[in-house]
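Quick illustration, no need to memorize.
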Amino acid sequence: MNRRPTFLISVLAFGFAFFYIPILSMIVYSFNASRLATVWGGFSTKWYVSLLSNQKVIDALLLSLKIAVVSATVATILGTMAGIVLARFTRFRGRTLFSGLVTAPLIMPEVITGISLLIFFILMANWTGWPASRGFGTITLAHITFSAVFVTTIVQARMVQSDRAIEEAAMDLGSRPWQVMFDITLPVISPAILSGWLLAFTISLDDVVITSFTTGPGATTLPLLIWSKVKLGVTPDINALATLMVLTVGVGVIIAGIVLSRAERRRLEDERLAFRSND
């Protein structure tokens, strides 16, 4: 009777080990004093110090952060509106087409998306003169295009699970639709909005394929810089750079978990107080 749980636990442990052991080994070897990435030469933090003095790395990091923040913010706004529309307005002309267009990038290969965006930007440059060059603007638009889909999916799922009776009760008491939106709907789905923003930020921060098609000279993001360095061989400074990216994403996930857990506890407490007041 215990063989099946033991087997499942073993498979699960193997899966986690297969995923996390390479990441942990990369973090450990980022403190390697040797210039050879796979030969341990003692503990040292010189590669982290060298990164701080590398202007190319700093510029690539700042560019990646700017693109990630802008694209995640815009994608969250657009994705939230699309998710609310799909969850609350179940019948309108063109809903099937709109829903298909929203979910299509989820199953579209990134190479196809990157090529199509590249062709689009080239045609726009020939017809209108914009963009004059590919860089921050084109990369940001490309990231908004595919990251808004993930925000839409998360917000729509949260909207479907939320109790619509609360919104209807507020409107029956005289609240206008925009008041219901800002006072009830958005606070209820705020954990989903935050989760969507963090997911869009993470996807934008580590994207390589689509960025490589929509970037141009002088606009090298951090993942592209790492990719170009890896072609010449993995060195400890690459391990240090990748470790900093893992640390950044990890801190973001921890902060998001804390915020979401507090918001959920606050929501449950408000529901208990509401039920007690009704009794």
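The longest helix spans residues 236-278.
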